[in-house]
Amino acid sequence: MAWSSVLHALLFFLPAYVANMSPLLVAKAIPGWKAPIDGGRLGKDGRPLLGKGKTWRGLVGGTVLGAATAVAVALLVPAYGEPGFFSGWDYGFQGFDGAPIGSDRPCEDGGTCALDASPLWAVGLYGAILGFAALAGDAVKSYFKRRRGKQGGAPWVPFDQLDFVVFGLIAAFAAAPLLADGWVLAALLDDWVVLATIVVLTPLLHFLVNVIGYWLKLKDVPW
Ligand code: CTP
Ligand code: MG
């Protein structure tokens, strides 16, 4: 296992992280747009279907910022096969030939190495899907949270922390065909540390980020 894989995993999942944080930022930017996804409807139990905290603004903001994050990463990270700590973790934007990401290109001596590359629009769409899935997971969680009688904003460990991870990961695998052939599977499965980081470290990070958001007065509660 490689410790660098921890940071590679965080970079891979960055669109979902940004999306998950974005509702708070977008709420500051467009405070007037508050339309709730559930349209104010109640469940059969008389409780809100999702609650006032799940807005279209949050869903759209997360999708857009997820796309922007993936595009920014693709443009900033060095190409596959080039030196650099994050080289090749560009969603396959600058090409990928199926070898483990970060390894030397096996076809370099042959001269003609036809790299499969992810177009930038596909990288953007991939980030949008990751961001959308993260917030859709958050909303699905809220549905069950309301059915359990928990108010919006009340803590519900570990579901508050894991909702966007589960949905984000499913989306990451499902949307793999958008990117360079084999890139997503190589990124997520070549080193088990990558998946482990996303599943295990993310809830801890989520908690940490929320505490910081609370200190910065972006959030009313530290979870
Ligand atoms: N938010 C939003 N739209 C979303 C998700 C979140 O506007 N789709 C904003 C809301 O202002 C929300 C805040 O981000 O209050 C924090 O999000 P979160 O903790 O997910 O929502 P809670 O209010 O805690 O609701 P729940 O108990 O259902 O998780
Ligand atoms: Mg919450």
List the SSEs and their pairings:
Blueprint: H1 4-12, H2 14-29, H3 56-76, H4 120-147, H5 159-174, H6 183-189, H7 192-215
Helix pairs in contact: 1-7, 2-3, 2-4, 3-4, 4-5, 5-7
Question: How would you describe this structure to a colleague?
Answer:
With 223 residues, the protein is mainly α. The chain has one domain (3-215). It has seven helices and no strands. The longest helix is centred in the middle third of the chain and has 28 residues, at 120-147. The site of magnesium ion (MG) has 2 residues, from loops.
Helix percentage range: 40-55%
- Overall pLDDT confidence: 92
The count of helical stretches stands at 7
Question: CA-to-CA gap between the ends?
Answer: 31 Å
Distinct ligands: cytidine-5'-triphosphate, magnesium ion
* Biggest beta-sheet profile: none
CA-atom Rg in angstroms: 19 Å
Instruction: Identify low-pLDDT runs.
Output: none
Please tell me the total number of domains. Answer: 1
Mass-distribution shape: elongated
| Proportion of beta-strand residues | under 5%
